């Protein structure tokens, strides 16, 4: 392959030439670099900030990984510390990814912002804050959580109420004194609601669709069951409703030394008030949908089905003797009188935390491969443009795709596809 620093002059501009460009130096981009290096494909990894930038800069202080330490692995590197059943802090995650970058000798260029990616006759032209790069293939590993997804009616919230997203939130002390409304009951929402409630603030949690999951089941971390039973390894092309699977909220889990289950029952017992999905703002009032009973019942039903899957696997594989007896958990308790509205003008609620999910940002991608909802059109990571690939997105090639431990298999297969593309074009 050509030297990564070979340069050519085109129309008066100096354009650097490499075979492949990887955008993003998180765990996904670095895994792509690892396999590109294995195949002797010259490439660069472009990162707008530092290695592991999102873990370093866009997480709250107390956050830990949802996955246990023994599950933290990247190609050629795995956790080997003294606490395999613990959960990494954000500082530890950053150090782990930085170590992977060093061990794999990834050709990372930090502080390099990608301005645009355009198709050319021979592949792609990548315009960066440091100049132009011509290449034959591009791997987009910039993540699926670049921008918080906040509903449009947030603009109707009175200015006296402070509004934050998980990108803004660091710890309870940064919020004004008084009540907090947390919107969204996935992993982020339940964790922040619990932390804020423990700080002494009255917390209301607005609950929509969610995935209920215990931290442990039959004596093992629930993610051990997901891994061992093969649920995490289900291929994307065997999932009935792939679009829905890719949009599912993250499960209600928290990584704590106590291996605590943090579901809605636990939050209610702490004093968190549960209300329905925030539907709109009218005349200065937040309006919440009814039907909490149905929302809870659906989450409970899906949990029972998942536990049935685990039990069937244990019986079928002779593993019953090495784990505890089957368990079933109490249904989510419906509040006796969940309120349907809250007056935002009376000072009861002083802050709102929008834990309503995230969306990718492809504003720099000048190739028509983004759908109406802002998501890449791709088939198992092969984007709908020859030579363009994606990594690190939810259920990209299997259910575990977006987790750190899930990137190795995805990256290997996507770079295999990229290698075949280069060979065919040659």
List keywords for this structure.
single chain, 426 residues, alpha/beta, FAD/NAD(P)-binding domain, 2 domains, five-stranded mixed beta sheet, five-stranded parallel beta sheet, 26 strands, globular, disordered N terminus
Report on this model:
With 426 residues, the chain is an alpha/beta fold. The chain folds into 2 domains: 7-146 and 360-425, FAD/NAD(P)-binding domain (3-Layer(bba) Sandwich), CATH 3.50.50.60; 148-354, FAD/NAD(P)-binding domain (3-Layer(bba) Sandwich). Helix content is 25%, strand content 22%. It contains 9 helices and 26 strands. The protein has helices spanning 27-38, 53-57, 90-103, 187-198, 222-228, 242-247, 264-270, 292-316, 407-425; strands at 7-10, 13-17, 20-23, 43-46, 73-74, 77-78, 108-109, 114-120, 123-128, 131-135, 137-140, 147-148, 162-164, 179-183, 203-206, 216-217, 220-221, 273-275, 278-282, 285-288, 341-343, 349-354, 358-359, 378-379, 382-383, 388-390. The strands form 8 sheets. The protein has a 5-stranded mixed β-sheet, with no helix packed on it. Strands 7-4-3-11-26 form a 5-stranded parallel β-sheet, covered by helices on one side. It is globular and about 70 Å long.
Under CATH at level 1, the class of the largest domain stands as Alpha Beta
Arithmetic mean of pLDDT: 95
> Taking strands numbered 1, 2, ... along the chain, how are they ordered across the largest sheet?
1-2-10-9-8
DSSP strand tally: 26
The geometry reads as globular
How many separate structural domains? 2
* Termini Cα gap: 11 Å
CATH superfamily (homologous) name of the largest domain: FAD/NAD(P)-binding domain
Main pleated sheet: 5 strands, mixed
How much β-strand is present in the residues?
Answer: 15-25%
- The low-confidence runs, each spanning 5 or more residues with pLDDT under 50, are 1-7
Radius of gyration: 23 Å
CATH topology (level 3) name of the largest domain: FAD/NAD(P)-binding domain
């Amino acid at each position: 392959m050509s030297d990564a620093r070979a340069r050519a002059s085109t129309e008066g501009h100096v354009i650097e030439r490499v075979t492949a460009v990887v955008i993003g130096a998180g765990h996904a981009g670095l895994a792509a670099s690892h396999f590109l290096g294995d195949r002797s494909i010259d490439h660069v990894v472009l990162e707008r900030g530092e290695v592991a930038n999102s873990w370093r800069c866009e997480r709250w202080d107390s956050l830990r990984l949802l996955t246990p330490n023994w599950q933290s692995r990247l190609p050629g590197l795995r956790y080997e510390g003294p606490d395999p059943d613990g959960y990494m802090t954000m500082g530890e995650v950053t150090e782990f990814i930085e170590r992977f970058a060093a061990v794999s000798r990834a050709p990372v260029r930090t502080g390099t912002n990608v301005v645009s990616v355009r198709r050319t006759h021979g592949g792609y032209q990548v315009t960066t804050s440091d100049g132009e790069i011509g290449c034959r293939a591009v791997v987009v590993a910039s993540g699926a959580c670049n921008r918080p997804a906040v509903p449009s009616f947030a603009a109707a919230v009175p200015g006296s109420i402070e509004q934050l997203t998980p990108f803004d939130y660091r710890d309870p002390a940064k919020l004004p004194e008084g009540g907090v409304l947390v919107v969204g009951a996935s992993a982020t929402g339940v964790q922040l609601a619990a932390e804020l409630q423990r700080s002494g603030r009255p917390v209301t949690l607005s609950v929509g669709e969610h995935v209920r999951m215990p931290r442990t089941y039959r004596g093992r971390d629930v993610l051990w069951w997901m891994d061992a039973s093969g649920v995490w390894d289900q291929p994307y092309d065997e999932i009935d409703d792939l679009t829905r699977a890719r949009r599912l909220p993250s499960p209600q889990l928290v990584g704590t030394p106590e291996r605590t289950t943090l579901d809605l029952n636990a939050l209610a017992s702490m004093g968190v008030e549960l209300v329905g999905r925030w539907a709109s703002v009218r005349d200065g009032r937040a309006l919440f949908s009814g039907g909490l009973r149905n929302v809870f019942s659906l989450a409970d039903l899906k949990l029972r089905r998942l536990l049935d899957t685990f039990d069937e696997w244990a019986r079928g594989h002779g593993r019953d003797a090495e784990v505890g007896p089957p368990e079933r958990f109490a249904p989510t308790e419906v509040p006796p009188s969940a309120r349907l509205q809250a007056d935002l003008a009376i000072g009861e609620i002083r802050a709102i935390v929008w834990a309503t999910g995230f969306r990718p940002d492809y504003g720099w991608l000048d190739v028509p491969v983004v759908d109406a909802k802002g998501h890449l059109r791709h088939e198992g990571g092969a984007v709908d443009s020859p030579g363009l690939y994606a990594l690190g997105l939810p259920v990209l090639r299997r259910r575990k795709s977006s987790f750190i431990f899930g990137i190795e298999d995805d990256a290997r297969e996507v770079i295999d596809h990229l290698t075949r593309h280069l060979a065919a074009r040659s």
